[in-house]
Every structure is written in structure tokens, then in C-alpha cells.
Specification:
The protein is mostly helical. It has 6 helices and no strands. Helix 1 packs across helix 4 and helix 3 packs across helix 4. The termini are far apart.
Length: about 110
């Protein structure tokens, strides 16, 4: 069942697979496959291996271009200045002690 379901999924997405080659997102295909009723309870690892096997059969072995496309290129880090921290203004107005006592008394606390 798994082989049949995978082969129908691959034939439906054959154009995408052949254009993107090994950059094609196999995880998304596995997720779409698992959403079908026939594959709902199938072993995910077996389905993943079957997808990989059929894609290799369709595309052949990886070429040097495929390997170069799959390696991640390091990002250029821009030299940025650290952001200056803005200091919060200090409050110069204070609450009167009488108001503190009123609030504390209303809440049931003794000052």
C-alpha cells in the first residue's frame, strides 16, 4: 500500500520534482501523504524511505550540481553598531505618605 500511495503522489508531483531535483521538499510530500486516509496509520519512517527510494529512481544519483545546491552558504554578517540604550527618565514626583496609608488601609494592610 505504501509503495502504491507514494508512486501516485510522485507521479502527481513529477514536474515539480524534476525541476527542483533534490531541493524538492520531501517532508511536505510526506505530510501530504500522511493526510490521506490510506496512509493515515502507516509507519512514517517506512513511507519516508519509500519516497527517497522512488525519487532516486526517478532522478538518478546526485550530481555535483545537486550537492552544491544543497550545501548552505554562510551568511555575510554586517558590521552593525550596537544600539544605544535609552535611559528611562527618573520620576521626580512622589506619592505622599498619607496616600500610601489610605491605599494600604483600603487593601487591609497596615502601613
Amino acid at each position: 500500500e505504501i509503495t502504491k500511495a507514494v508512486s501516485t503522489m510522485i507521479t502527481s508531483k513529477k514536474d515539480e520534482i524534476t525541476t527542483q531535483r533534490y531541493k524538492f521538499n520531501q517532508g511536505k510530500m510526506l505530510g501530504d501523504l500522511r493526510k490521506t486516509d490510506a496512509m493515515k496509520w502507516a509507519d512514517g519512517e517506512v513511507a519516508k524511505e519509500e519516497i527517497e527510494k522512488q525519487i532516486v529512481a526517478l532522478l538518478g544519483p546526485k550530481t555535483a550540481d545537486d550537492e552544491a545546491a544543497l550545501t548552505k552558504k554562510p551568511k555575510d554578517k554586517k558590521a552593525t553598531k550596537p544600539a544605544e540604550k535609552k535611559e528611562k527618565p527618573v520620576s521626580t514626583t512622589f506619592q505622599s505618605p498619607d496616600k500610601d496609608a489610605l491605599i494600604a488601609g483600603a487593601l487591609g494592610y497596615s502601613p
